[in-house]
Write a structure and sequence with these properties.
single chain; alpha/beta; Diaminopimelate Epimerase, Chain A, domain 1; 5-stranded mixed beta sheet
Length: 270
């Protein structure tokens, strides 16, 4: 008799735990979740973090990947998740939007909450083997967090997407110390070095070469009046930033396919 009561109590306890877990999962109100944009996009910035060009560059990159592989990498930037757990929020958002193809469940969701500085990467069921939790954590720590801390939100998301795409192709794994495949110099430093190099060439290298030439032929260099030397002789223009991907547009994305998520992935803060 006591054994039957014990099993009955155990069964009731399991039901209570299951109910508590369901209640905890369902406590995030609908108002916290954003609605997908219309027409749908893979890059959804509800916080105004990226400028128009940055959003389009990322969109083109992810649309091209979607077309080539049917894998959908979706970025969602929100102001707040209202104190909810970023992992639970991301998993539920991925299910609501149906990111990835139905049956393949090949979606990846990147969520950034700007007020709380939370970041999460959640792969769908079909990509959990290519993007295990440890690799998602490494992408957050190595690619996203360093860039986000400096305010380079586009750079962090772009580099994260590059590694995610490579991982789905089997080119990147979590085995051994993971390192970014490319280390990019900040754009402002690249432009500054370019300006210094151009000025150094015209104001140092050319005058020195001119003096050396006249020294070797045994003559004094003629004086150049200031009015004869202008910037018209030099090309001081700096190269414009061109997107790595420019073949797509927002209208090229056909929409989400009804994929599902199982709660895998990783979270972090910047």
């Amino acid at each position: 008799m006591n054994l039957i009561v014990t099993y009955r109590n155990y069964f009731v306890l399991l039901l209570l735990l299951a109910f508590a877990g369901t209640a905890a999962h369902a406590q995030i109100p609908d108002s916290v979740f954003p609605k997908p944009q219309n027409p749908p996009r893979l890059v959804n910035d509800f916080a105004g973090t990226l400028n128009a060009s940055e959003k389009q560059w990322l969109e083109d990159k992810l649309v091209d990947f979607d077309k080539a592989s049917s894998n959908q990498v979706c970025i969602v930037i929100v102001k707040s998740i209202a104190g909810n757990d970023i992992a639970e929020y991301s998993t539920e958002l991925g299910r609501r939007w149906g990111i990835g193809q139905k049956g393949k469940n090949n979606g990846v969701l990147i969520v950034a909450a700007m007020e709380s500085h939370d970041i999460n990467i959640s792969p769908g069921y079909g990509l959990e083997s290519a993007l295990p939790d440890v690799l998602c954590k490494q992408i957050i720590e190595n690619e996203i967090v360093p860039s986000f801390k400096q305010g380079y939100y586009y750079d962090g998301l772009d580099k994260a997407c590059t590694v995610i795409i490579s991982a789905t192709k089997g080119e990147v794994t979590a085995e051994g110390p993971y390192r970014s495949q490319k280390t990019e110099m900040p754009r402002w430093l690249l432009i500054l070095l370019l300006i210094i190099g151009i000025n150094g060439f015209f104001f140092i290298a050319i005058p020195l070469a001119r003096r050396l030439f006249y020294y070797l032929i045994g003559k004094k260099p003629p004086k150049i009046r200031a009015s004869e030397w202008t910037y018209s002789n030099a090309d001081t223009s700096t190269p414009k930033d061109e997107p790595a991907y420019s073949s797509g547009s927002s209208n090229d994305f056909g929409g989400y396919g009804g994929g599902s998520f199982g709660g895998g992935g990783a979270s972090g803060k910047w």
